[in-house]
Amino acid sequence: MTKPLSKADYSPTGVTVHHDPARLTRVVRALRAAGRNIALVPTMGALHAGHRKLIREAQVMQNTVVVVSVFVNPLQFGPNEDLARYPRALESDVDICREERVGIVFAPSVEDMYPFGTNVSISPGALGNELEGATRPGHFDGVLTVVAKLFNIVGPTYAVFGEKDYQQLTLVHRMARELNFPLDVVGVPTVREHDGLALSSRNRFLSAEERQTAVGLSAALVAGAHVSAQGPEAVLKTARDTLAAVPGIDLDYLELRAPDLGPAPEKGDARLLVAARVGTTRLIDNAAVLLGDGDD
């Protein structure tokens, strides 16, 4: 028999914050036993309008309790990356979740998430060493490991991710399918500022001048998509020329891939992906393009 939930476990009229994985697992099991679906929105905190969009997408799913996880995962940061610098703002994150009528915030410590250390991890396969993985070795091992742990702790019906981290979304889809997680992975289109800049928690590190420079990434994607009827070479050349015309963008990669991030087709659906540094801040973005032969 399932033990009744107390208000400290879950309240239908407000947000409840949990830190202990075992307790949260007991709570969500009780909610599922009562007929509720669970929608998980995994985040690293520093919530912004893009995260609000993910939460709102989760809210519209039938009969759901939304669980937002807030955890800066050390496994996905390399030795020269910005783990210590990554913004942490749990109090304001909880306030945002309260405004968005989130049921549960899960904010574990590193010790809570990895009580036995980090000896076991999930390999993303060859795709995990391409694009972001080529620059950030081991990054997706860390991402998939923590996401798998969240899936096991929360047991969601739905897991909601943004398309801005498109390679992450693709790999999570693949992991869920290949490891038989009984859930639906839902992708949500990127939320952008009025000038096209993709929302990111890292945008707060940009100076006003760098903020203007960073718009060049989305401008390159738009320019490339505009000539997509002319084929892959035109897309890449136009996007690359657009980036080159903006001083201050240190390009890491610009690639055109199939929607599953395999080799790009000559015609049909594709995905244009870019990563670059602006000042000391590394940014990523992507856009869907429809390739054609230009003769239609």
TrEMBL record:
Primary residence:
cytoplasm
| Xref: Pfam families | Pantoate_ligase
Sites binding ATP sit at 44-51, 162-165, 191, 199-202
Gene3D superfamilies according to UniProt: HUPs, Pantoate-beta-alanine ligase, C-terminal domain
Q: What class of enzyme is it?
A: ligase
What are the alphabetically sorted keywords of the record?
Answer: ATP-binding, Cytoplasm, Ligase, Nucleotide-binding, Pantothenate biosynthesis
Keyword Glycoprotein recorded: no
Tell me the function of this protein: Catalyzes the condensation of pantoate with beta-alanine in an ATP-dependent reaction via a pantoyl-adenylate intermediate.
NCBIfam families found in the cross-reference section: panC
Name it.
Answer: Pantothenate synthetase
Q: Which organism is it from?
A: Umezawaea tangerina
Source organism lineage? Answer: Bacteria, Bacillati, Actinomycetota, Actinomycetes, Pseudonocardiales
